[in-house]
Please model this.
Amino acid sequence: MQAHVFPGQGAQFVGMGQDLYNNHPRAKEMFEQANEILGFRITDLMFKGTNEDLKQTRVTQPAIFLHSVILAATLDGFSPDMVAGHSLGEFSALVANGTLSFENGLTLVFKRAMAMQKACEAAPTTMAAIIGLEDQQVEKVCEEIDEIVVAANYNSPGQVVISGSVAGIDAAVEQLSAMGAKRALKLAVGGAFHSPFMEPARAELEEAIQAAPFGTPVCPVYQNVDALPSRDPSTIKANLMAQLTAPVRWTQTVRQMIADGATLFTEVGPGKVLQGLIKKVDRAMETRSA
Model:
């Protein structure tokens, strides 16, 4: 069975999507439609902006979404058996499997990006990657720190990203390094994604998700919140609303997809980050870029 997976924030690069724009009339049409929906020429920033331009959450998220969704739309015979996306990538997956229209998906992603950027500006928060410890060791340290610090991304066995206040992350990094983490590195991100600090953004996005029409997908989506497959629009909505403050259970998602019969993972979008993570979950699994 074919699994198609869609990357999240961090996969962006200057020039992303330009080949699609130049070589596929349908892709060019969709990019121009996106410029109209967003009210600014995001294509200019994607194709010839700076790395700093692309690092702005309000630009990063719709840019990665557009690259992924438009690439999927140009693939010959695109017919996934199952889909999943890492954080932001879940929205791309939901367009790819027919749950959301392109227009509604882009509108929700942009609202999500703006709400998250606003939440990030409200308090000094950050994230850190912890490599080389068991999930439970990382969780225990987070729980014991007298600040808000949580496990945010279970990316692969032995790789967890934590999220929280700057002081809390600093304390956690120090303790986890002392425990023997191979790496405990603060990340250059806008704030504490997938943590309680995103509650204002979750509340803001909830209304938009509730109002958006969700169709019945052509194949199941494996969602970040519970790593389980769903084809029920109401369940998908509920999980999508919970996603902003809940951890991304990517390791568990990949394992569940393999258990359910996935034999080939195709990454649709910029970069190859997810292929690397999937190989760390199961070295024998076949992966490729779209």
